[in-house]
């Protein structure tokens, strides 16, 4: 049942029309004319607290559940991540925590990429025991805990009890020996959420904002009495990044399609950026070599922005001047008020 549902997700996520607004198109970087770096001086490696990576770009969590198809996709994504030298998160491991037979679906990621940076992934219904199994399954370098309240509510068979969530997050952060990243799945994060997460000891978030993969639409496709009002729910990713600035480490995801979008996320305050839906779509439609070419292209675009902006290192992008337009500007103005 669960693995069938996950394949449904993949099918729906890939067949969906794009978000009506590309929020990163409403962020303009203020151009600088006096580029004076040598391309070879530009370094895109990052340090994110205890995590080091050769690029701020990573493959974000996808394809939880079990089954041969999921295992195949995870293996292929891991090969791509290894060839590109980028980090990779796996999809929710909750099913494999409960059912040992499904563990190969994830173990393949470590097998294909023995030295890579890999993130484990659980829901906030997991306590420390479950989280530890997820981490060990992958010898993970970090753990993502996903928050997907809206998705669960729109999902006909979704969870309805979130009353243990805060305690679970707190316990996992306290006991884990690796970074714990609390992440959204496409509805974004507010400054109120960030404040509460900080009080639980959280230092890393992935804002998973609105503008990319839309799990309300995905789940609505699967129900007869649709909850249409949730199709436009959420905080746009650029705004979520701005709302999260008081967090130690901010990862951006949700609607990032290019190296220029990624650079905008870094300018707005993120330290790294993830892509999920576009990676999966490219893999399924084009195969591994096409996805590797796309990743190279994203890196080329990112370095090009760094060249124009005179940034030798990724962290120098943060705080460069930008201008907001449209919906994104409406959000920024009204939230500041
Ligand atoms: C996801 N995402 C996700 N996130 C998570 O934490 N656990 C999961 O199991 C999944 N599963 C999943 C399946 C599929 C098919 C997709 C496309 C996505 C959410 C993902 O990590 C990311 O936060 C959002 O998709 C927003 O990023 P994009 O897709 O707009 O780049």
TrEMBL record:
Give GO terms for biological process.
Answer: isoprenoid biosynthetic process
Residues in FMN-dependent dehydrogenase domain copies: 78-319
The protein's required cofactors: FMN; Mg(2+); NADPH
Q: Which residues form a coiled coil?
A: none
Where on this chain does FMN bind?
61-63, 92, 121, 183, 213, 255-257, 276-277
Which reactions fall under this protein's catalytic activity?
isopentenyl diphosphate = dimethylallyl diphosphate
Query: Which parts of the chain span the membrane according to its record?
Result: none
The question of whether Metal-binding is a record keyword is answered with: yes
Q: Which residues bind substrate?
A: 5-6, 151
**Tell me, what does this protein do in biology?**
Involved in the biosynthesis of isoprenoids. Catalyzes the 1,3-allylic rearrangement of the homoallylic substrate isopentenyl (IPP) to its allylic isomer, dimethylallyl diphosphate (DMAPP).
User: What protein family is recorded?
Assistant: Belongs to the IPP isomerase type 2 family.
Could you identify this protein by its name? Isopentenyl-diphosphate delta-isomerase
Underlying gene: fni
């Amino acid at each position: 049942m669960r693995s069938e549902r996950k394949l449904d997700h993949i099918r729906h996520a890939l067949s969906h029309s794009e978000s009506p607004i590309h929020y990163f198109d409403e962020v303009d970087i203020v151009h600088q004319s006096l580029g004076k770096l040598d391309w070879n001086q530009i370094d895109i490696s990052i340090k994110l607290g205890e995590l080091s990576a050769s690029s701020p770009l990573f493959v974000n969590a996808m394809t939880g559940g079990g089954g041969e198809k999921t295992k195949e996709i995870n293996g292929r994504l891991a090969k791509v991540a290894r060839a590109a030298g980028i980090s990779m998160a796996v999809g929710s491991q909750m099913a494999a925590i409960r059912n040992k037979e499904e563990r190969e679906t994830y173990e393949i990621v470590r097998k294909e990429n023995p030295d890579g940076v890999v993130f484990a992934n659980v829901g906030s219904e997991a306590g420390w025991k479950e989280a530890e199994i997820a981490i060990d399954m992958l010898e993970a370098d970090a753990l993502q805990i996903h928050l997907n309240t809206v998705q669960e509510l729109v999902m006909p068979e979704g969870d309805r009890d979130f009353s243990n969530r805060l305690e679970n997050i707190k316990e996992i952060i306290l006991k884990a020996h690796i970074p714990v990243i609390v992440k959204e799945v496409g509805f974004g994060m507010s400054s109120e959420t960030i404040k509460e997460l900080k009080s639980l000891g959280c230092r890393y978030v992935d804002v998973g904002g609105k503008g990319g993969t839309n799990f309300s639409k995905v789940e609505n496709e699967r129900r007869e009495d649709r909850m249409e009002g949730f199709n436009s729910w959420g905080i746009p990713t650029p705004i979520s990044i701005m709302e999260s600035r008081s967090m130690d480490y901010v990862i951006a995801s949700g609607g990032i399609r290019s190296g220029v979008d990624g650079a905008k996320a870094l300018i707005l305050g993120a330290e790294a950026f993830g892509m999920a839906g576009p990676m999966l779509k490219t893999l399924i439609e084009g195969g591994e070599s096409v996805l590797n070419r796309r990743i190279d292209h994203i890196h080329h675009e990112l370095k090009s922005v760094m060249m124009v902006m005179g940034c030798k290192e990724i962290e120098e992008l943060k705080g460069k001047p930008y201008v907001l337009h449209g919906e994104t500007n409406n959000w920024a103005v009204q939230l500041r008020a």
